Amino acid sequence: MHAKTIAYQLGLTSYVLEKNVAGVSHEESLINPKPGGSCLNWVVGHLTLSRNRSLGLFGRKPMYDDGEFAAYAGVDDVPLTRDNALTFEELKR
User: Fold this and answer.
1) Under DSSP, is residue 36 helix (H, G, I), strand (E, B) or coil?
2) Model confidence pLDDT, tens digit, residues 15-32
3) What digits encode the pLDDT tens for the residues 52-79?
4) Other CB atoms within 10 A of residue 50 CB
5) Cα atoms in the Cβ-side hemisphere of radius 13 Å centred on 89
6) Which of 15, 47, 51, 67 has the smallest number of CB atoms closer than 10 Å to its CB?
7) What number of other Cβ atoms are within 10 A of residue 73's Cβ?
């Protein structure tokens, strides 16, 4: 895939994400949808982790240590809880 295309897609998804999470509080981000699914805090954290890991593909160093995002990796070893969730403001940043 062409680098400009990837950059455009990342920019577009960032724009859409920003519009969808505007005004959502940290407490609201932790609400799990019914009947199932992941809370918005986990979704944004997982996107951040995935993008952070992909920086190496572009010759860049990750911005965050993977350990900070263990609860967002999608494994059952470290489930996301109110105690280990990053603040929604930090995730949006």
Assistant:
1) coil
2) 999 999 999 999 999 998
3) 998 888 888 999 888 888 889 876 667 7
4) 13
5) 1
6) 67
7) 16
Q: Which residue has the tokens 């699914």?
A: 37
Residues 6+ apart with CB under 8 A from 55: 61, 62, 63
Find tokens 């400009």 and name the residue: 4
How far is Cα 17 from Cα 12, in angstroms, rounded to an integer?
9
DSSP class of 23: T
User: 70-76 long-range CB contacts below 8 Å, 24 or more apart?
Assistant: 71/42, 71/45, 72/42, 72/45, 72/46, 72/48, 73/46, 73/49, 74/46
**37/58 Cα distance (integer angstroms):** 31
4-13 as b/e: b if 16+ CB within 10 A:
eeeeeeeeee
